[in-house]
Amino acid sequence: MNMLDKIIRDKMREVDKKKRSNPISASDILERKTIKNFSNAIKKQNMPIIAEIKRKSPSAGIIKKDFNHIKIAKTYEKGGACAISILTDNKYFGGKLSFISDIKDRVNIPVLRKEFIIDEYQVYESTFSGADAMLLIVKALSFKKLKQLISLAKRLGIETLVEVHSKNELDIAIDAGANIIGVNNRNLDTMTVDITTSLKLVKEIPTNCIKISESGIRSYRDIKLLKQEGFNAFLIGESLMNEKDPGWKLKTLIGGE
Predict the structure, then answer these.
(1) How confident is the model at residue 256 (pLDDT cuts 50, 70, 90)?
(2) CA-only gyration radius of the chain, Å
(3) Separation CA 216–CA 171 (nearest Å)
């Protein structure tokens, strides 16, 4: 069993438990925090970087020991991020759902929930928590479920970043109605990273879609190359989190220093 399969197996158990212990009603959704436009935030910037908050990962282990999600979020906003991506999985990434509301109350840029979304319950949960957008991973979902989750998110007013790793997954995402597509340069079977994955797929993504390259982006040179090839935005995590001052590193990536 590969790492993604293990994560999904555990996530199914986690969600089933949450649905029983903490059901979310329609009235809860009506009380959600104000939604910020994730797409517009990307379009407004010349070099849009979605800066990620990630305490640990299965491939890297503990990434940041002196971890303070609120402090990091504020440095990202000050450093010029167009949005903030927040890992909310606890077991494998050290995140918490509460990070979303903590950060949402303290920054003025959109928040993306990066999670292994497999059930409608998590869409309601994301909306109620204040996420402006959420991640959907094609590899983790059936076509029917992907389409259902995209449709539900749209009805609730939350945007979806649909993640692909191959041409086949890209075709599935497009057929399911995705309009924000992320190409993950990390192979979820082997956990290796190669940004040529993005370069191979970018021309296959429809021009009406927002194109985001994810993972393995470490320098302004990487960003410049990906932008020249057609990407609209860049989701960057470990190369920021590894720095003592993530906000300073973000500025250098945006400014080409």
Answers:
(1) low
(2) 17
(3) 23
CB-CB neighbours of 200 under 10 Å: 14
Which residues are catalytic, by number?
52, 54, 114, 163, 184, 214-215
pLDDT for 204-222, tens place per residue?
999 999 999 999 999 999 9
| Lowest mean per-residue pLDDT among 63-72, 82-91, 133-142 | 63-72
Dmax (CA) for the chain in angstroms is: 51
Question: 3-state DSSP call for residue 195?
Answer: coil
pLDDT for 257: 55
Question: Residue 187 pLDDT > 90, yes or no?
Answer: no
Buried b (16+ CB within 10 A) or exposed e, 210-238: bbbbbbbbbeeebbebbbeeebbbbbbbb
Cβ-proximal residues to 87 (8 Å cutoff; 6+ apart), any chain = 52, 53, 54, 55, 93, 94, 95, 114, 115
Per the confidence metrics, is the pTM higher than 0.70? yes
Spell out the domains of the chain, with CATH numbers in brackets. Answer: 36-255 (3.20.20.70)
d(CA 101, CA 111): 9
214 beta partners: 184, 235
